[in-house]
């Protein structure tokens, strides 16, 4: 089955051609060394504090490994709460956004979230993400922090609601060691979440596709033939759509590997996709269904 050339594949050609690197293929940036202390396996525990001073104990295991030719550090995490049958499974990609000169964290969970946020790397080794969130029509700010000191990893989550003081809801400590955690897409939705109709509609496109097309670097430039495959699969009970791309561009170096994650974003009230690749590429698009049944996805950047 044939399909149109995907934007992420096109942009990867631009990145590959423009970024200085050995043999013409972009190399991981030096900024990524800040993330190296996380690499390995970790086991930990802590408490979840909810409004009303209710506390729930939790235990977790996570692993960090370099993926996509070293351009991103992947985090795989499994969390179990005392007295709760469902578990949280999540994975994230930590990397460096060359265009905007910032660290980023793309997190995907079985609660149906797929979100890209700026991550701050502090002098004390802390990796902190600040984000605006929405749950049950309630907006709030979230601060997610990881601090590595030797073989100890401290994890905290703080919330700031529209009214009242900041809440420290998660406090936990991990120690280096344990078995490798590898999160797949087969886990059940956390607490029985159901997909938004717009995402359920998109998940009908799941399957394997071949890609054939031509691309020009700019007006008047010669075209480059591009070929590849796209594999799309619904995960976490249909709460996320994952796409995996592999391909080549004729005459250009490197084998392209890309990942994309689609989810419904409650804050933006639309579908959102996040792309990343082994060329160091990073892109977010908002998607909406048009009246004539097409998915229109838009993005902006330099």
Describe this structure in words.
The protein is globular. Strand 7 (114-121) and strand 8 form a beta hairpin. With 302 residues, the protein is mainly beta. The chain has 2 helices and 18 strands. The strands form 2 sheets. The protein has a 10-stranded antiparallel beta barrel with strand order 2-3-4-5-6-7-8-9-10-11. It has helices spanning 7-18, 197-203; strands spanning 2-3, 40-50, 54-67, 72-81, 87-97, 102-109, 114-121, 126-135, 138-149, 152-160, 167-176, 207-216, 223-235, 240-249, 256-265, 270-277, 282-289, 295-298. The model is unreliable at 1-22 (pLDDT under 50).
What's a concise summary of this model?
With 302 residues, this protein is mainly β. The chain is 6% helix and 56% strand.
SSE layout:
Layout: E1 2-3, H1 7-18, E2 40-50, E3 54-67, E4 72-81, E5 87-97, E6 102-109, E7 114-121, E8 126-135, E9 138-149, E10 152-160, E11 167-176, H2 197-203, E12 207-216, E13 223-235, E14 240-249, E15 256-265, E16 270-277, E17 282-289, E18 295-298
Mean pLDDT: 89
**Number of helical segments with 4 or more residues:** 2
Largest β sheet strand count, sense and barrel closure? 10 strands, antiparallel, barrel
Global Rg: 20 Å
Strand order of the largest sheet: 2-3-4-5-6-7-8-9-10-11
Structural class: mainly beta
Quote the distance from N terminus to C terminus: 33 Å
Note the overall shape: globular
**Fraction of residues in β-strands:** over 45%
Number of strands: 18
Which runs of at least 5 residues are low in confidence (pLDDT < 50)?
1-22
